[in-house]
Design goal:
The complex is a heterodimer. By secondary structure, chain A is α+β, with helices and mostly antiparallel strands. Chain A is built from 16 helices and 16 strands. In chain A, α5 runs antiparallel to α7 and α7 packs across α9. The chains are: A alpha+beta, B mainly alpha. Chains A and B meet through α1, α9 and α10 of A and α2 and α4 of B.
Amino acid sequence: MRPLVDDVTHTPVRSTSGASRDEQVAQSLYAQRERVYPREVHGLFATMRVLAVVVLLGLFYGVPWLHWDGQQLLLFDLPARQFHIFGLTLFPQDFIFLSAILIISALTLFFFTALAGRLWCGYACPQTVWTEVFLWIERKIEGDRRNQMKLDKSAWTGRKVAVKATKHGIWILFSLWTGFTFVGYFTPVLDLGARVMTLELGPWETFWILFYGFATYGNAGWMREQVCIYMCPYARFQSAMFDKNTLAISYDPGRGEPRGARKRSTDHKVAGLGDCIDCTMCVQVCPTGIDIRDGLQYQCIACAACIDACDRVMGQMGYDKGLIRYTTENALSGERPRILRPRVIAYAVVLLALVAAVGVGIASRTPLALDVIRDRNALYRETHEGLVENVYTLKLINMDDEDHRYEITVSGIDGMELGLDADLVPVAAHEILSISARVRTDPYSLTRASSTIVFTLQAVDDGRLRVEEEARFLGPVSPAR
Amino acid sequence: MQTNSESSSIPLVQRISAVLWPAFLCAGAATGVFFTFFDPIVLLECEGEPPMSRMGAYTLGFFMFWLLCVASSVGTSYFLSPQPRGPSHPAQTP
């Protein structure tokens, strides 16, 4: 049988910072990649991961189809420049909220990492979730780990071609469906689905479905653990959030060493052996192909497959479970583990403050905006009555879920007049309306070449809907007095 | 023990990922921020360019940002390669 991973060392390494450890990591990093064939594993954590996969992928593929009142519940409608998030409609003007939501997501990740290590990687990361599905498809078609390795080594026969073509065909179909769903988050999905059926997809939608489908196929089918090792920034910096009390998956070298094969009937304590029987099951199930017994490694995505595998072996040997387990560095070295630490509390406080700020911000946001754009063609013009006129384009953005009629007024210079085509301007829900506005004033009331004026937009049917926007009014430098 | 020339021979997949991937992330962020503030329809009208759907403009914008960021990443990757050492400077072990 071919070696399972690059190097299975039989020396326990407790510290992650020793020189030998660095050298080892460097060597495995620069070695030619050997394909990892993760062995199928059953157990508590495998079940939890399958559950996570079902729930998360169910959400991913299902949520775009949820509609309420004819409106897609979650739609980042890029063509219309509106984001619909479960009843809330955000516009480019609400950029700050979206940024805050992204920051909250990042902080949540940091919080859970400090508390319980790489929960994200093992159960929730799209790379893990999709790879899990691709592995499942692969096992259904090519068989278990041993059959897969045998098939890959064998010569190209008609059967091998058929098996491989079936696998890739199903992978590609699944990827295309994924790409379609992804685009369905950015353009109305019902409409998109109808156009797929009638083969009337636009060029850009087609492109993005293929692009995202290809990314899924490439990352989950081919790249797999290399995405975690070479591409994932989180994998590299997550150790900054770790401390000695962070939950991590560890091998207990004090209990396991010296490792070695033995018969089940052997009294290993008398034979001078630890609990590790060196069956390498923990290595065989590892999706990133590492040996957890070498200590904490950044390639470890904390999927806990090795825990399930080792617990099963320990059960068969009649030893206590938990030779590999979720534990903390402090617990392993016999110190008292602490859950509430300054780091965890700090993340929690910042997180809560941000969530509260965004909540208050969204609740008190005025669903109305006004953009004032000065006519670029002329600084100002003089009318035949001798007045100075500036022309503006007003963009009225009704971000509310209902239609409204608005009154527009202007202030800032004594005696100025506002010329509009209508006194009251109706704007439908979620609509943006551009209108032209002419502001005139007597040059004698101007004290400087550029004055500040204020446009006020007020809904006549709702007193709370009111916004003000400043603009510049330009006139002659030295008005004739 | 590793020499500098050995350490530069990182896998091709890592080198390609190290160029394309950060550039992809930065291009995504740049596209998001840029098009939040500038509506491509208005932008194209101002410049007198032929009209194009917003999706098309976003896509082209994204790839232009990606290309720019890839150029920067390629530069970084190239300049990170160690200088060849002459015989008068024996290779030092790290």
